[in-house]
Q: What sequence folds into this?
């Protein structure tokens, strides 16, 4: 991996470290809103061996278990693994970090990654790994947030602009050579390049209603780009952002529009690891 990918992944490990509860109390319901649709796209049904990658607190894993699937779930962050084990006691939940999954090729008939490919330093390698662990004839389904940002995601930038606070430089960005357009075409090309056949990408839109305190608690506890940047701001700057948030969040009662890109594809032939597995975990 390039240094930029490594920096990006290191930043991700640090951002999520110990933050399962913070995620559950803030952004998890937003990500979970498409859980059932993603399971449908991956053709998860009773008796199928399914893997949920980047499972977080196990929202999709729990829903898949409810369908009677044989659930395995992994996450890079230990506190998420703990939370998912509690949420899905019958599942095999383990720590694992994309793009190196500790499973033999073709181990699963359905593989899901809900808002995970937007958190990895090498999206193409991560997508290839999702395909590698899927059996021929099986399905992979993945979601990401689109760009340009929908109103719900753009909301935070508007709050900061209104606060008058100048944020420091953002966290590491993906290497330009490894990034992909966050559009239906860009996600489809990524998944086709990973070896998936019959790739479909749909844009789903909905209104997400939030409790203002719960929504603020995400960045306040270090989650999201804003949360990472706020960790190093003086208390006075955070207070100004909070005041701007209070002004803006008065209008949150009816919720804000958001959308996500949901993709699926079929595995037609077995693939192998493109490079040796890293042993350290
Ligand atoms: C936005 S959360 C989504 C969690 C869950 N899929 C959901 O729908 O609620 C992203 C998750 O991906 C995990 N993650 C980030 N990078 C990862 C990687 N390289 N390998 C495995 N998991 C990763 C994070 O720890 C976090 O739990």
A:
């Amino acid at each position: 991996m390039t240094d930029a990918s490594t920096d990006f992944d290191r930043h991700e490990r640090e951002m999520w470290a110990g933050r399962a509860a913070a995620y559950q109390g803030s952004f998890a319901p937003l990500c979970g809103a498409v859980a059932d649709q993603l399971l449908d796209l991956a053709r998860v049904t009773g008796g199928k061996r399914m893997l949920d990658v980047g499972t977080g607190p196990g929202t999709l894993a729990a829903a898949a278990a409810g369908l009677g699937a044989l659930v395995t779930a992994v996450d890079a962050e230990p506190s998420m693994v703990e939370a998912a084990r509690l949420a899905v006691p019958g599942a095999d939940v383990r720590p694992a970090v994309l793009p190196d999954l500790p499973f033999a090729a073709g181990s699963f008939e359905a593989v899901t990654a809900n808002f995970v490919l937007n958190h990895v330093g090498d999206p193409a390698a991560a997508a290839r790994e999702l395909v590698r662990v899927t059996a021929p004839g099986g399905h992979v389904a993945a979601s990401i947030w689109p760009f340009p940002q929908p109103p719900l995601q753009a909301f935070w930038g508007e709050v900061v602009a209104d606060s008058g606070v100048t944020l420091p430089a953002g966290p590491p960005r993906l290497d330009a050579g490894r990034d992909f357009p966050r559009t239906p075409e860009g996600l489809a090309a990524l998944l086709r390049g990973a070896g998936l056949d019959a790739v479909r990408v749909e844009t789903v839109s909905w209104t997400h209603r939030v409790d203002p305190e719960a929504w603020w608690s995400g960045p306040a506890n270090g989650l999201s780009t804003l949360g990472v940047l706020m960790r190093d701001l003086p208390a006075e700057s955070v207070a100004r952002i909070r005041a701007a948030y209070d002004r803006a969040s008065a209008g949150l009662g009816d919720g804000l529009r958001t959308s996500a890109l949901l993709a699926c594809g079929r595995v037609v032939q077995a693939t192998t690891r493109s490079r040796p597995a890293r042993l350290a975990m």
